[in-house]
Write a structure and sequence with these properties.
about 650 residues, alpha/beta, Rossmann fold, 3 domains, seven-stranded mixed beta sheet, five-stranded parallel beta sheet, 25 helices, 19 strands
């Protein structure tokens, strides 16, 4: 073979001809390739560095052309992609038309689910195993890799409970790296931390077995004694009895960076019957000193500018412009400074929501509940009932996991919980698992909810202040985008009141959210290029809607175009349609733009906005289309005027 091994791995079967020395070389080449990609663009990094040996061991032990493998929270999928036929395309990862940064069944049969949210892997793996057994394919193995950060989520325990009861042959690998995206929290984390101190337990098992087997008259009593001692040590030292009581046979913890150890253990466990849990200890960022020392920063770091010897990271590209996340986190900090009743809750996303300053300044009023979004919402409801003012800072896509609790514990009780929905809209390279495009729909469904979105930076802090003054629940959405601000005399935030930036006579753009800034730019271009005088309205509220302003526009203007960065089905534009219908208004002059009824794949955010017609050029084209349609429905004089303007 040539010096470079990775380029010669076209499928996992190619691994079997490699020696131990070559496999060790391959782990180095995989880590080098991860660094190479990070020199091109931001990508998930530390989590992938930590599973290289585990990935190779799994593919060396099982045949996943037939067996089943699910990677929970699929941002650790990169080594798997590299050895399953995607090495030549790997540098395209997270680009438009390139490989996805998560598992993608459309890319490879080795990817079974598009996993971007945590904790559902055990349920899916159990379903696969039961389905295979029911179809006379019980020889298929089912393997699930779940992280310690994802383990505390409720659905993981629902699955463990059911799997233990069904007694199916399911192998769950607990990849314990002491991390979620941020350091893990909670009692389960403390239990797993104790396991890292239990080398004694591993040694003791072998020592006890050796002693007892050499005693005369060993018999059943000594065998039972051995099992009792083993179980006692598990309960005392590893926390493994939690899994054993749920019906799993627990093994570990073992070194997740020792490929020979992993292979030996997996070979043995492969032959066992019933549900098994293997506890593997790994280090997030393993093999790159800076990533190992700071796995939070290196979870998805900026582009690497310079690499030194032994994979040392000398410098990262400096950050770009301030984002809406920065403005909201600063507003939260100020709110907590001003009011001791304000508390903040996040679900394992302290860094993502940029809440480090909030956490450090107000430790007693900041709660990171881990990847437990349903609990976060119900917990917030309890805080609100007790008289506090909880802010749940969470990604839009993750709040979906709490749908029932938004209804039952918050909306039904009409409790003042504020939801700051980060990453609302299109999120760029993370793609369809992380787009926050449904929140307007699923929050405005519920009675008592106020649903709002800032039009630009100037709206952010006043909106949060407004939200904290309400007596019922409020959802406030904002995108993963750089801050923009429209120069104007800023209108105060008032309940169900839109902001009229400009009132023109030839049509209206009604923007819900930060596309307001784009609408202002488009209206100015239209005025310069065609003389068209357009109204621009910053809607601010999707619920309750400013019916007076919006219905006035529908009554008076040739056309109204609603603009939103969310799904059209049930979104802001739908709310306008409903309002017009209730007012018995014709909607022949109402047009809507937003996200189509399909999933938008990964790309740069500006590419995604262009794809769906939500950038300046797309809105200009839409207005031209509308003007031609409007002109054809007007009397000849008006038709000529409109045609001249669009020529």
């Amino acid at each position: 073979m040539s010096d470079k091994l990775l380029a010669q791995i076209h499928a996992p079967a190619d691994l079997h001809g490699l020696t131990e020395v070559q496999l060790d070389q391959l782990t180095s080449e995989i880590r080098d390739e991860l660094i190479r990609v990070l020199r091109l663009r931001p990508a998930h990094f530390a989590s992938n560095l930590g599973v290289v040996e585990l990935c190779l061991a799994l593919h060396l032990t099982f045949d996943f052309t037939r067996d089943r493998l699910i990677w929970d929270t699929g941002h650790q999928i990169y080594p798997h992609k590299l050895i399953t036929g995607r090495f030549k395309r790997f540098e395209t990862i997270r680009t438009k038309g390139g490989l996805m940064g998560y598992p993608n069944p459309q890319e490879s049969p080795f990817d079974l689910f598009m996993t971007g949210h945590a904790s559902a892997s055990i349920s899916c793996g159990l379903g696969l195993k039961v389905g295979d057994d029911l179809q006379d394919a019980s020889d298929r193995h089912a393997v699930v890799v779940i992280g310690d950060g994802a383990l505390p989520s409720g659905i993981a325990y629902e699955a463990l409970n059911n799997a233990g009861y069904l007694e199916k042959n399911l192998l769950v690998i607990l990849n314990d790296n002491k991390m979620s995206i941020c350091p893990r929290t909670g009692a389960i984390a403390q239990m797993l931390d104790r396991a890292r101190l239990t080398a004694f337990y591993q040694d003791a098992k072998g020592t006890i077995q050796d002693v007892l087997t050499h005693l005369p008259y060993v018999g059943t009593m000594a065998s039972h004694a051995l099992q009792s001692i083993r179980d006692s040590l598990k309960a005392l030292l590893t926390g493994g009895m939690l899994f054993e009581e749920l019906g799993f046979r627990y093994f570990g913890p073992i070194d997740g960076h020792s490929l020979p150890t992993l292979r030996r253990m997996l070979r043995e466990l492969k032959e066992l019957k019933g549900p098994v849990l293997l506890h593997v200890l790994t280090n997030k960022g393993h093999g790159v000193p800076e990533a190992s020392a700071d796995p939070v920063t290196f979870h998805t770091p900026p582009v690497i500018e310079e690499v030194g010897p032994a994979r040392t990271i000398i410098s990262l590209k400096k950050g770009g412009k301030r984002a809406y996340t920065d403005a909201v986190s600063q507003a939260i900090l100020q709110a907590m400074e001003e009011d001791p009743k304000v508390v903040t809750i996040t679900a394992a996303m302290c860094q993502g929501n940029k809440l480090e300053k909030v956490r450090d300044r107000f430790e007693e009023r900041f709660f990171d509940v881990g990847i437990c979004e349903a609990h976060a919402v119900a917990f917030a409801a309890g805080l609100a009932k007790a008289g506090m003012k909880p802010i749940v800072a969470i990604y839009s896509t993750f709040l979906q996991r709490s749908f029932d609790h938004l209804f039952q514990e918050v909306s039904l009780q009409n409790l003042p919980v504020v939801f700051c929905l980060d990453r609302a809209g299109l999120v760029g390279a993370d793609g369809p698992t992380h787009h926050g495009v449904f929140d307007t729909v699923y929050t405005r469904l519920f009675p008592n909810f106020t649903v709002m979105a800032p039009g630009d930076e100037a709206d952010v802090r006043p909106m949060l202040q407004f939200a904290l003054q309400q007596t019922g629940p409020v959802a406030l959405r904002y995108p993963k985008a750089a801050l923009e601000c429209v120069e104007r005399v800023h209108a105060p935030i008032e309940h169900n009141t839109a902001e009229i930036y400009d009132w023109g006579t030839d049509g209206a753009l009604i923007a819900y959210g930060t596309l307001f800034t784009t609408c202002v730019q488009v209206a100015e271009r239209m005025r310069r290029e065609t003389g068209l005088d357009l109204s621009v309205i910053n809607a601010r509220f999707a619920k309750p809607l400013d019916r007076d302003t919006i219905l006035r526009a529908l009554r008076e203007l040739p056309f109204v175009l609603t603009v939103e960065e969310g799904t059209l089905e049930g979104g802001f534009g739908s709310a306008v349609l409903e309002a017009a219908n209730e007012a018995r208004l014709s909607t022949h002059n109402l047009w809507r733009v937003g996200l189509p009824d399909r999933y938008i794949m990964h790309a740069e955010r500006h590419e995604q906005l262009s794809e769906v017609g939500l950038d300046q050029e797309g809105l200009m084209r839409k207005i031209q289309e509308i003007l031609h349609a409007v002109a054809s429905s007007h009397p000849p004089a008006r038709r000529k005027l409109m045609t001249d303007r669009t020529a």
